[in-house]
Amino acid sequence: MHTAKLGPIGVFDSGYGGLTILSEIRRQLPQYDYIYLGDNARSPYGTRSFDVINDFTLQAVKYLFKQGCPLVILACNTVSAKALREIQQHYLPTCDDPSKRVLGVIRPTVEAVGEYTKTKHVGLVATPGTVSSHSYKTEVGKLFPEVHVQEQACPMWVPLVEYGESDKPGADYFVRSYTQELLKQDPLIDTLILGCTHYPLLRPKIREAIPEHIEIIAQGELVAASLDDYLHRHPEMQVRLSQGGSVSYRTTECPEKFEELASLFTGTDVDAQRVKIDQV
Ligand code: DGL
After folding, report:
1. Which H or E run contains 35?
2. Cα atoms in the Cβ-side hemisphere of radius 13 Å centred on 74
3. Could you tell me whether strands 247-251 and 272-274 are parallel, antiparallel, or unpaired per DSSP bridges?
């Protein structure tokens, strides 16, 4: 039996995007405690190299483990695409407590794809990092080999969100240009995966920019439902989680800036604390 202290669930993103996932997780699983960590000082990750994303993610996971989290959700597609496998296969088995777990957001999203598409043509909008990893294409191919995934990198979307421009008129141009390019590549798309946790903030503009019959899959609900299911299947992890219903926000940038933008994502006031993760 595990005798370790109870701890919160860690939720990590390069910046603010993971807050869209955290909100949905907290809506479905309000009883647990959470630590949210945003590496805002070094985001965006989407255009960074594989090795750098691996290093930064490892620092974040080590930090959250040290804060007592037995379970960490990588609430970022770029990180899930580039660093999750490395962490699961090489870091976890050798860390102080190999029974800790790190989960990503791509698999739960892909599992839902089959329920949505009728034409078997699915569009993916994501960061250049996620697109170049082809993780979605690979994972969809394993579960639904008959489904074609057309990928579209949207390098300007994360900066628009990070700078609080997602609902401003300037964002329209970039939303239209990437979605039009995607639909030009594959006009049969009937399902669009928002494969970046920042993109739900652009959802109203994306909705306006694409034909009505195209279903949009956002990840929050899917990831939250999958976590719930995971905890039912893994009672040995569930009993290690503290249940005070709290959330603590940590950022590698200055907290004032984080608080301002984070409240835009969560719709509530946020109190944040600045932390250093590169020395853990
Ligand atoms: N939120 C991240 C994702 O889901 C992308 C942010 C970034 O580029 O840092 O891919």
Report:
1. strand 34-38
2. 30
3. parallel
pLDDT of 280 higher than 70: no
86: its two tokens: 């490395």
pLDDT at 218 over 90: no
Q: In 2-88, which residue ranges form alpha helices assigned H by DSSP?
A: 18-28, 50-66, 77-82, 84-86
Active site residue 254: no
Read off the pLDDT of residues 33-63 as tens digits, 9 standing for 90 and up. 999 999 999 999 988 998 999 999 999 999 9
How many residues in total does the chain contain? Answer: 280
How many angstroms from the chain centroid is the CA of residue 38?
11
Which residue has its alpha carbon closest to ligand 1 atom 2?
Answer: 76
Alpha carbon distance 121, 189 (integer Å): 5
Q: Is 206 exposed, middle or buried (0-12, 13-18, 19+ CB in 10 A)?
A: buried
User: What does the alpha-carbon distance between residue 26 and residue 245 come to, in Å, rounded to a whole number?
Assistant: 8
103-146 tens-digit pLDDT: 999 999 999 898 899 999 999 999 999 999 999 999 999 999 99
pLDDT range class, residue 163, cuts 50, 70, 90: confident
- Residue 76 CA: which ligand 1 atom is closest? 4
**Structure token pair of residue 194:** 């928002």
Q: Give the mean pLDDT of 220-240.
A: 97
**pTM of the predicted model as reported, rounded to 2 decimal places:** 0.93
- pLDDT given for residue 4 in this prediction: 61
**Ligand 1: lining residues by beta carbon, under 6 Å:** 13-15, 17, 43-46, 76-78, 127, 130, 158, 196-198
Distance, CA of 179 to CA of 188 (rounded, Å): 13
Element at 44 (helix H, strand E): none
Expressed in angstroms, the distance from the first to the final Cα of the chain is 28
Give the separation between CA 223 and CA 229, rounded to whole angstroms: 10
